[in-house]
Design a protein that fits this description.
By secondary structure, the protein is mainly beta. It has two domains: 4-25 and 209-310, no CATH class; 32-203, Cyclophilin-like (Cyclophilin). 13% of the residues lie in helices and 38% in strands. The strands form three sheets. Strands 1-2-8-6-7-4-3-11 form an eight-stranded antiparallel barrel. Strand 12 (214-216) and strand 13 (221-227) form a beta hairpin. The chain is elongated and about 85 Å long.
């Protein structure tokens, strides 16, 4: 990559690196939403990439507070629990309709397996989902071919299905023709707010992503994200070969992971000069050095020698 000959070496590793990138893409952090009910908490992982429009719609309700004091208004044993239509503020006794936005386009592409969350919609209209969601308590794969397929946009994490199952096993009552399967807690005959299953939702703050250019303590390697011009953009690791009398690092072709876009803060490599510039390097979670200049001094072994750097 760093000379014409080395480009060929790196290209030979690109296929392997690309396969690796694909294999780990499913575990990359996605948006998470914590659901707090009076029977316990569980966390949803949303499928940001697989159903972007549906996830965005769902998050609009979550972040706007419209799911605060929301009610699980439907529970069908060994089928689903459903909410997102009503809320009941503290100190009140009447169900209120959640203010809904417009309908969204169906994005079915994931099967309705146990533990997944999907959007409810009007029969005979695939693009009619608004605010109502349901969690599959069983493998409801027949929903995949019904009404254009019901869009799955997330899943319950960890042991969260224990809470969902507990809700699904509650006694149910009929309030009206429209609300005929409402789960209730400690119901004795007069339906009160405390008898309902409430589901508050909030977005979980995920960990800050690692710095683009950093020294990794666990592997004792430099990990850089590099814009190498026509050679491509990628993440690559370097081992420290020596520190005395000069700092020399070696690029590891097998660590190369292709990237799709360049972000502010990427390191840059100039093929003509052999110069690798690192705008900022993080060590121990802190910006320790800026404007590091490394020079390709041995293209056969992919060795770079530190030329200069600045401290914050």
């Amino acid at each position: 990559m760093f000379s014409l000959n080395q480009y060929r070496i790196f290209l030979s590793f690109k296929f392997v690196a690309l396969l690796f990138a694909i294999s780990v893409s499913s575990v990359h952090a996605q948006t998470q939403v914590k659901v707090t009910t009076n029977l316990g908490e569980f966390t949803l992982e949303l499928f940001d990439t697989a159903a972007p429009g549906t996830v965005s719609n769902f998050l609009n309700y979550v972040t706007s507070g419209r799911f605060k004091d929301s009610v699980v208004h439907r529970s069908v044993p060994n089928f689903v629990i459903q909410g997102g239509q009503y809320f009941i503020p503290a100190g009140t006794t009447n169900l209120n309709q959640i203010q809904i936005d417009g309908t969204i386009v169906n994005e079915f592409n994931q099967s309705n397996l146990r533990g997944t969350i999907a959007m409810a919609k009007v029969a005979g209209n695939p693009d009619s989902a608004t605010s109502q969601w349901f969690i599959n308590v069983a493998n409801n794969t027949f929903l995949d071919s019904d009404n254009g397929g019901f869009t799955v946009f997330g899943r319950v994490l960890g042991d969260g299905m224990q809470v969902v199952d507990a809700i699904n096993q509650l006694q149910r009552v009929q309030l009206s023709a429209a609300i005929s399967e409402m789960p209730v807690v400690n119901f004795t005959g007069a339906l009160l707010r405390e008898n309902l299953v409430l589901a508050d939702m909030e977005v979980v703050a995920l960990e800050t992503p690692p710095a683009l250019n950093r020294f990794d303590d666990s592997s004792n390697q430099l990990i850089l994200n590099v814009d190498a011009g026509s050679a491509g953009i990628f993440q690559i690791s370097f081992t420290i070969e020596t520190q005395d009398p000069q700092v020399i690092v070696r690029a590891l072709p097998t660590s190369l992971i292709p990237k799709t876009t360049v972000e502010a803060g990427f390191s840059t490599f100039n093929e003509a000069t052999g110069q690798l510039t690192i705008p900022e390097l993080e060590v121990g979670g802190q910006a320790a050095y800026r404007n590091l200049i490394l020079l390709l001094t041995d293209s056969a072994q992919l060795l770079f020698t530190l030329q200069s750097f600045e401290t914050p």
